[in-house]
Amino acid sequence: MTHRPRRSIEEITDRTDRIIGAPTEALAASAPALADELLAMGEDVLDAWLIGKGQTPTAELSEGFRLLAQHRQAARGNPSFNACRETCRELVYHHNLIRLSPTGEDAPRNIRLGAMVLRHLALFVEGKLVADGLGDFCCSSRPIRQGEQAELKTEAL
Amino acid sequence: MGEQKYKKVAYYPGCALESSGHAYNASTKAVGKELGLDLVEIDNWNCCGAMEVKNIDPKIQTYLSARNLSITEEMGFDTVMAPCNGCYHNLKKAEYDLSHDAKSVEVNDRLSQKAGHKTYEPGKVETIHALDWLKHAVGEEEIARRVKNSLKGLKVANYYGCMYTRPRHIFPEKDKGPGSESTAKPHFMDDILAAAGAQNVDFPLKTACCGGAHSLSDSDTSTKLVLNILTTAEACGADVIATECPTCHTGLEMHQIRAEKVMGRKTHVKILYFTQLLGMALGLSPNKVAVQENFSDARPLLKEKGLA
């Protein structure tokens, strides 16, 4: 479990904008730290969702990453959250890319792309939170969840 | 040379391809014709249930999609091709529900009887997407052989959207190893356009949500999500975002305009259906694949790249 202060989604989107716009040299100089920061901010985004849902965010790891365990936790019983599954995995992937070659010439580009992926995750979760107070945002899977409890309108047909 | 069984299939265009997605309809048919494939539109088809009916009662959505499958079977086809991600998803979901959920079976049977048509039984019809169709009926080798106007030099970010691969359990044919589509990293569109000469860029948001369902009810969120997709594609070096879903395509186009008007954020990447790109690579004119119908005017870029 994280002991650092969590950042709000607004703070995270502001921070990602600053990272994306930062000079290449600055990104290159702090590549490993930025890789870790991006991943930590991704965890904060999912914390916001889980806490909003009244759950205690997991401290466990999945495939070596807390972010993936959090995503699994968030999607349990809520399949629409799978719409950000690959976004979480892409964030982990970019973290690994940067960490594997922090001094490589691609590191600044990977940091920017990682920040863009993080921004998408933040916007997606923010949208879900805002839509109707933890309401549904994703179109594709809402009925699958609802179908378990829904009163069938077809009964009247 | 591709699989024979997919060379003539039933065609379910769905509502979007008769309206906002008309360019997708026109380009899909044009590409099929050029490649010698037969598409037979199913008779008297109805809405797949889309999001609206599904959100009211998923069982009615299952019935509506099953009715289209029933007609397909009655017409003597065992395969139906649905180019729209929403339709494709819903037909696959109906197939899954009718195989796994007794209540869905009961509702489908009752409504089918009341409507006076044969009840669809799962397993009779295979639903495929336009990507499956071209990949399996033709294949990359044949596409590469048929290319008259290579997409060489065109950098493409392939955007699949969220419904083509999710939820995984309704797509049992995916994730089956070599030759099959991947739900985590879909590649059929990449494969097809690479065969047509395009240079695909590594695009990390290829299955990310575009906010399509809330395009009108929560426009700001949709605009922000789309803007992030557009700017990420540009950061990856893409000239074009290739789409395979009319909802995503329309969302990307409309919110590209809205991002500029409301947020003052102009992006330059062009948005084209993958069938439009493939059609031009096969030698069809931009007009034939309805490029002029797109809001995102790619004609100057296509001219620059020798495609128009």
Textual characterization of the structure:
The complex is a heterodimer of chains A (157) and B (308). In chain A, helix 3 (31-52) runs parallel beside helix 4 and helix 5 (85-100) runs antiparallel to helix 6. Chain A is an all-alpha fold and 157 residues long. Chain A has one domain (9-156). In chain A, 62% of the residues lie in helices and 0% in strands. Chain B is α/β, with parallel strands linked by helices and 308 residues long. Chain B folds into two domains: 4-128, Glutathione S-transferase Yfyf (Class Pi), Chain A, domain 2 (Up-down Bundle); 148-304, Rossmann fold (3-Layer(aba) Sandwich). Chain B has helices at 22-34, 52-56, 58-74, 85-100, 102-115, 130-137, 140-146, 188-195, 219-235, 246-263, 274-281, 299-304, and strands spanning 8-11, 38-41, 79-81, 126-128, 155-159, 199-200, 240-243, 270-273. Chain B is globular and about 55 Å long. The A-B interface holds A 79, 82-87, 89-90, 93-94, 109, 112-113, 116-117, 119-120, 123-124, 126-127, 130-131, 137-144, 146-147, 150, 152-154, 157 and B 51, 54-61, 63, 89, 93, 103, 107, 110-111, 114, 162-163, 166-167, 184-185, 204-209, 211-214, 218, 221, 224-225, 228-229, 231-232, 235-236.
**SS strand fraction of chain B:** 5-15%
Quickly count the helices of chain A. 7
Q: How many separate domains make up the residues of chain B?
A: 2
Spans of chain B of 5+ residues with little confidence (pLDDT < 50)?
Answer: none
Largest interface: A-B, 39 and 43 residues
Elements of chain B, N to C (H/E) = EHEHHEHHEHHEHEHEHEHH
Tell me how many strands of chain A there are: 0
How much of the residues of chain A is beta strand, in percent?
under 5%
Distance between the termini of chain A: 51 Å
What percent of the residues of chain B sit in helical stretches (DSSP H or I)?
Answer: 40-55%
The succession of helices and strands of chain A, N to C, reads HHHHHHH
CATH class of the largest domain in chain B: Alpha Beta
Give the N-terminus to C-terminus distance of chain B in angstroms: 28 Å
Gross morphology of chain A: globular
